[in-house]
Amino acid sequence: EPPGPPELLGLAPLSPGAPPQAPDLLYADGLRAYAAGAWAPAVALLREAMRSQKELGRTRQDCGARCAAEPGAALPEVFFDIPGSESGPRQASGFWERLLLRAALRRAECLTQCAARRLGPGGAAQLRVGNALRDAFRRREPYNYLQRAYYQMKKLDLAAAAAHTFFVANPTHIQMREDMAKYRRMSGVHPQSFRDLETPPHWAAYDAGLELLGRQEAGLALPRLEEALQESLVQLECCRAGCESPEEQQGEEIEEKEGTGNQGGLYEAIAGHWIRILQCRQRCVEDMATRPGRSSPVPDFLPSQLRWLHEAYAQVGNLSQAMENVLSVLLFYPEDESAKNSLNRYQAQLGEPRPGLGPREDIQRFILRSLGEKRQLYYAMEHLGTSFKDPDPWTPKAFIPEAFREKLREDLEKRPWDDEPLQPKPLIHWKDVLLLEGVTLTQDSRQLNGSERAVLDGLLTPAECGVLLQLAKDAAGARSGHRGRRSPHTRHERFEGLTVLKAAQLAQAGTVGRQGAKLLLEVSERVRTLTEAYFSPERPLHLSFTHLVCRSAIEGEQEQRMDLSHPVHADNCVLDPDTGECWREPPAYTYRDYSGILYLNDDFQGGDLFFTEPNALTVTAQVRPRCGRLVAFSSGGENPHGVWAVTRGQRCALALWHTWAPEHREQEWAEAKELLQEPEETEEEEEEEMSSRDPAPEPPNRRLQRVQDKSGKPPRVREEL
Ligand SMILES: O=C(O)CCC(=O)C(=O)O
Ligand SMILES: [Fe+2]
Is the CB of 550 under 6 A from ligand 1? Predict the structure, then answer.
């Protein structure tokens, strides 16, 4: 078992029964202690902040549930009833208003008292945790500080656990990747030390269940799969309970512009508020189905859990339970052929119909409630002009107003990744990435006279450039025995390209150093993170191709050269300079969405990159290569570019193309990674590393300032203009 939060060492004792303190204050104190190098108090305060925040959430849920059940606090049924659905007898005017108001007042009173009882007088104010803090906790930011503090305290197992927990939710965090590798080497590999301390229970159970099922252990899988479903529903309830507090709705700015904004009177305001609560509740299905650190949910998560349950029960021969689950699947998808077939088979096997055999009650309740909400949301969409993005593919067509069905069909026909729900806010802001990595923005689109272009500096240290240049050199030497072949673009240059997989294979064969091949992988991920954060914070970008390319001037053939090292082109379409059009069709690599060129050196003549107008003639901007400089741009016709002739020396660069299309993700990257997985280092090396090499990881000082900055504005990045 990994050390879980309770045993995270006998530092300042955490008092389990004590009422929670204000998490923001605890967190700020924790960060101050951290900055002062007071590691043990920092750990205690950060953990207490997390505990308090959890405890507050639990209080809110408990109070919410208790007060909803309070006599007289239930909202009158008719409040949920809307035109179009059958309703009870109409009462005298004013009757429902009084009922509604009384219920609302009663419930508000109950909530206030409940909070005061649980949290002390004025406790309700603590329930409000600021947005920034909530986001920080959701990103598991405290674990980043914890891992560094534990490292300083030489508690490597705890550092590893905390680092991993942070990493699970921040899989593109480059520094963390390095830290974890370091802990792994130093702590002598305790794989269990790298377990996620915060895995939501339904994911743990779900993964365990599927793994067992995959090993033909249906009997063992069943309790885990049942647990997964129960925990999923619990998680859903937690999320829904949060929808009633004001801060949960602040992400809804869009709504302000819509029909039920703040203007209007009492009824418009009530309706608007209620709609926002319903929208929030519906989104909880996605929240529950999204793994930590992922940006999109597992599609159709609940029905697929039911299908697994059905399969597992069928495998162990438990007919009635198998039937219960297959009937539940049919609640979502009444026309599901395979479910219908199974059902018929079971009915035939059982002989006569068994009364009392129906779908699962928990699922029945879930669907009824969800449909009730959808009905109201679609009604408001049609009549009040509010928006509703239905998270579920199973909603019966009859629920969707005619006018929106067409739109829905169009949405389904779009490229699948267009439909990936966008993150309400970027996971990592690109400026934060810059701060963390010490990268600077040198020129933006405006300064480069175009759209979606940027030059960033400081992505590589000179030593890293050296390693990659050496890699290119060793690979070229090993493969051809002479310095490269003729360039496909010009006969005045030689051209050598190296892919990540080739590099890994050569490293495997001992032809090039492992360090270089590993750096190549790591750096490509570094560029991807930055490009995603800068250009596509709401939609994941994948690497689709990585190529280490060197172009060298052929001596004695440079006089009166008129040609280019790389003719003007666009990266994802066929450019027609005559019309300025760019055709996004083969032979262009149409799935490329963003391009990046990371330069490794500047000791050559010529070889600047330039952008042109779509006529391929008028130069709009130029970029001089140098070590660690990245030029990144969207790959379409808006960015035609070329490379001036390299007239002396050798120009090396890492060219990377990114895509939104997951199916065009670079397979070779993962293969290369696999090949380069190194055997663990020896004890002596660990000792040496612990004592000398990296005694104190940089505290994330600059992030600290940002968190403490009460104005809420991130600090400005130094922009070298
Ligand atoms: O190396 C460069 O600067 C640009 C190369 C390029 O545009 C390409 O390979 O598509
Ligand atoms: Fe290009």
Answer: no
Q: What is the CA radius of gyration of the chain?
A: 30
Rounded CA-CA distance 540/542 in Å is: 7
Q: Which residues contact 298 (CB under 8 A, 6 or more apart)?
A: 289, 290, 291, 304
Kindly state if the Cβ of 454 falls inside 6 Å of ligand 1. Answer: no
Query: Which residue of 566, 575, 604 sits with most ligand 1 atoms within 8 Å of its CB, as the best mutation to test the pocket?
Result: 566
User: How far does the centroid of ligand 1 lie from the alpha carbon of residue 506, in Å?
Assistant: 24
Helix (H) or strand (E) holding 102: helix 95-119
Can you read off the two tokens belonging to residue 698? 């940089």
How many angstroms separate the alpha carbon of residue 642 from the centre of ligand 2? 7
Cα-to-centroid distance, 492 and ligand 2 (Å): 19
Question: What does the chain come to in residues?
Answer: 721
Residues classed as catalytic: 651
Q: How far apart are the first and last CA of the chain?
A: 52
Q: Do 555 and 561 touch, CB atoms closer than 8 A?
A: no
In ligand 1, the atom with minimum distance to the C-alpha of 595 is 10
Question: Predicted ipTM?
Answer: 0.98
Q: Is residue 544 within 8 Å of 607, Cβ to Cβ?
A: no
Residues less than 5 Å from ion ligand 2, measured at CB: 571
Q: In sequence order, which ranges of 70-217 are alpha helices (DSSP H)?
A: 95-119, 123-126, 131-138, 141-152, 156-169, 174-186, 201-214
Q: Could you tell me the sign of the dihedral formed by the alpha carbons of 508, 510, 514, 518, in that order? A: negative
What count of other Cβ atoms lies within 10 Å of the Cβ of residue 401?
Answer: 12
Boundaries of every domain in the chain: 201-418, 441-673
DSSP letter assigned to residue 192:
G
Residue 233 in contact with residue 362, Cβ under 8 Å? yes
Instruction: Give the strand pairing for 542-553 and 493-499.
Output: antiparallel
Cβ contacts of 415 within 8 Å, gap of 6 or more: 660, 661
pLDDT in tens, 650-692: 999 999 999 988 878 888 888 888 888 765 443 344 333 433 3
In terms of Cα–Cα distance, which of 33, 296, 271 is closest to 152? 33
Is 160 a residue whose pLDDT tops 60?
yes
Q: What is the pLDDT of residue 421?
A: 46
Q: Which CATH number fits domain 441-673: 1.10.150.20, 3.40.50.720, 2.60.120.620, 2.40.30.10?
A: 2.60.120.620
- Ligand 2 centre and the CA of 569: distance in Å? 6
Q: Is the CB of residue 571 below 6 angstroms from any atom belonging to ligand 1?
A: yes
From 597, 599, 626, 631, mutation site for ligand 1 pocket: most ligand atoms within 8 A of C-beta: 597
CB 593 within 8 A of CB 496: no
CA of 708 to the centre of ligand 1 (A): 42
| 575 alpha carbon, closest ligand | 2
CA distance 146 to 161: 10
Q: Give the pTM.
A: 0.56
Q: Which residues contact 199 (CB under 8 A, 6 or more apart)?
A: 168, 292
Phi first, then psi: give them for residue 583, nearest 5 degrees.
-90, 120
653 Cβ closer than 6 Å to some ligand 1 atom: yes
Give the DSSP H or E segment for 404.
Answer: helix 402-413
Distance from C-alpha of 328 to C-alpha of 358, rounded to nearest angstrom: 8
Atom 10 of ligand 1, residue of closest alpha carbon = 571
Going through 412-468 in order, the beta strands assigned E by DSSP cover: 440-443, 453-457
Reference 141, options 234, 28, 238, 247; nearest CA is: 28
Ligand 1 and 551: CB distance under 6 A? no
164 vs 30, 144, 516, 696, CA distance in Å?
A: 20, 9, 25, 19
Q: CA torsion sign, 123 to 125 to 128 to 133? A: negative
Kindly report the protein residue whose alpha carbon is nearest to atom 7 of ligand 1: 642
Flag the least confident range among 176-180, 200-204, 401-405, 462-466: 176-180
